[in-house]
Each structure stands twice: as structure tokens, then as C-alpha cells.
Design a protein that fits this description.
329 residues, alpha+beta, 9-stranded antiparallel beta sheet, 6-stranded antiparallel beta sheet, globular
Length: 329
């Protein structure tokens, strides 16, 4: 794992810049040399990279495909992991493999966006499908440049769901889009659920969700469900006041959502342990999210970063514009 705030690509940029400065100091090139200036500009421009590592394991006598997506944006390094049984055996994914979650989780920089599945997608209409019971197929869209992008494509006889992940060069956050359609009937709902454990898994806990002008505390051993006002600022900060009383440790989780396609949003405190945020919209209409991993940083700084929404529309465009339609034709 890289140190917070430093990634392998940052080291490469630094090495190239040192080499260029040595050239200049040695008189090998003039300060006005256009080629030197071009190389310096290229060396200082961040590049996002993606590498995909596939392994095969075994669980309960059946093969398990594990795919690691290793991301470096120049500002943050991530490893996202997806694991699934094959074919019809994928119906066993949730119970036997992924702790009742989707199997698509975060490994690096930490596992507080749940490593067994931090995002779950349900389609509800004349038929019903959920990616927890489906085999996802990785599909790389872009692996190097100003962004990287890949899909997990879930298809059954009932319908198709796609979870798309994008990272922008020089940016520390991830961008997710979710879409789905049922093959029988056009009407229905697309429901996306995020699952987080801010600051980790070892208590005692005091889980909170912070948003613009509001702080939602857990109810101890009780489940607590709160409906969110979709007209309010579209961000959430997941924190634990017991594990990080000073608000300065790594492990805060942030989420920004595009309100336009949503009809309902909820926060669920699950017995002062897991925090779920749940968003519903119509089938066939793409939902877009920005996923943050903060730290070490104070809660106030993290909230200020999430509340700075001025460039969100532009960054959504940078992340998703020009990529092929997730659901295809």
C-alpha cells in the first residue's frame, strides 16, 4: 500500500522532472528549448492508469474468479476487487462468498467501503434481479490517460445491470454510474445501496452520518432509517465519533450523488455498525455518484470538500462523457 497522498505515478513524475533539471543544469539543453519545455509539461501532467489482475481460487468445491482493478490517478491509489462463482453457481455468491453483499469492494487505500461489496444494485418490476446473485463480467473501457474506466456487467434472462467505475487523472475520488433494465416490461425501479464502516470494524462504535445542516446519530442496537430530502445538498459523510473523537484519523467515507434521476434516498444505521445509503430511481435512467475516502483529515475539512459542489457537474462530464452506453443497444 502506498503512503497516503503519494502514489507510484507521482514517483515516476518526480524522477522525470529531476532528470530534466539535471539536463538543464548540465547545459545539455537551453531553457528556451521547445522540446525540453514539452517534456517538462508532459512530466508534470498526471496520468491515470489501470491494471487488471485475475486469479482463480476455490470455495466449497467450486472455482471462484477474483479480479483486482489496480488504479493509480497520480493523486490516489486504489485496488478494487470483484469475486464471483461461475455461471449458475453465482446464485451462491451472497451466502457463501460475499457476506450477503455484491462481491465488488475496496481493498486499497482501506476496506471501510466494504471489501465484500460496498455497492449493491436491485431492479424491481415485473421481474426482479439483484447483482448479489449474479455473475459480473469485467469490461475495461480505458486503461491509461486522462481517465480510466471499467464496467462490471451483470446479465441474466431477466435483465442487465452495469456498474461503471471511473477515475480521473490527478483526482483522489472515484466516480460510479449504475444503470439497469429488465427485458420484460419497461416500468420499474433501479435501487443502488452503498455500504460503509467508517474508521473500521473494531468497536466500541458511535456511527454518524453528516450532511448539510444535519447530523444523524445511530440508535444503538436499533435499526434507524431516515428519508433524505432530495432538495438538500447531495452529499453524505460517514463518520465514527468513538473511533475518531478528534476527527483526524484516516477512514472517513464520503458520497456525492446526482439528484436528477432519483425519486427517493434513505440512510440506514444498522445497529450502530454498518451504515447504508440507499437511492432509488427509474429503470433505464443512469445514476451517478462520487465516492470519497478521506484521511487523515478532520470531519470539518471533509465536510467542506463534499459541500464544494461548484465543479461537480463538470467532473461528472469529465468522468462519463464519451464512454460507450453502459447498457448497449
Amino acid at each position: 500500500m502506498c503512503a497516503e497522498g503519494r502514489t507510484p505515478s507521482m514517483g515516476r513524475y518526480a524522477a522525470v522532472l529531476v532528470f530534466l533539471l539535471l539536463l538543464r543544469a548540465g547545459g545539455s539543453a537551453s531553457a528556451e528549448d521547445p522540446e525540453l519545455e514539452r517534456l517538462k509539461a508532459a512530466a508534470s501532467t498526471p496520468v491515470a492508469t489501470l491494471s487488471v489482475r485475475k486469479t482463480v481460487q476455490e470455495r466449497n468445491g467450486s472455482p471462484v474468479d477474483q479480479t483486482d482493478f489496480v488504479i493509480d490517478t497520480g493523486a490516489r491509489a486504489y485496488t478494487m476487487r470483484y469475486k464471483t462463482f461461475r455461471g449458475a453457481a453465482s446464485r451462491r455468491n451472497a451466502k457463501e462468498l460475499n457476506d450477503w453483499c455484491s462481491g465488488y469492494g475496496m481493498i486499497v487505500p482501506h476496506q471501510n467501503w466494504y471489501h465484500n461489496g460496498f455497492v449493491k444494485v436491485d431492479m424491481v418490476g415485473r421481474k426482479r434481479d439483484c447483482i448479489r446473485w449474479m455473475e459480473g463480467k469485467p469490461r475495461v473501457l480505458e486503461s491509461s490517460g486522462t481517465r480510466i474506466a471499467f464496467d462490471l456487467v451483470f446479465s441474466t434472462v431477466n435483465g442487465k445491470e452495469v456498474v461503471r467505475t471511473v477515475a480521473l487523472a490527478g483526482r483522489p475520488e472515484l466516480y460510479l454510474s449504475v444503470n439497469g433494465r429488465l427485458f420484460i416490461g419497461d416500468e420499474g425501479a433501479l435501487r443502488t445501496t452503498f455500504c460503509g464502516y467508517p474508521h473500521g470494524y473494531n468497536g466500541p462504535f458511535d456511527r454518524w452520518v453528516h450532511r448539510d445542516g444535519e447530523a444523524i446519530q445511530n440508535d444503538g442496537k436499533e435499526r434507524k432509517q431516515i428519508q433524505l430530502d432530495l432538495q438538500a445538498a447531495p452529499w453524505l459523510l460517514l463518520a465514527d465519533h468513538a473511533l475518531d473523537p478528534a476527527g483526524i484519523k484516516q477512514g472517513l467515507l464520503g458520497l456525492v450523488y446526482d439528484r436528477a434521476p432519483l425519486t427517493k434516498a434513505l440512510v440506514l444505521h444498522n445497529r450502530n455498525y454498518m451504515i447504508m445509503s440507499d437511492f432509488t430511481g427509474p429503470l433505464g435512467v443512469e445514476q451517478r455518484y462520487i465516492v470519497h475516502t478521506f484521511g487523515p483529515v478532520s470531519r470539518e475539512i471533509a465536510k467542506a470538500k463534499l459541500a464544494d459542489l461548484e465543479t461537480v457537474t463538470e467532473r461528472f462530464s469529465q468522468a462519463f462523457d464519451g464512454l460507450p452506453p453502459a447498457l448497449g443497444n
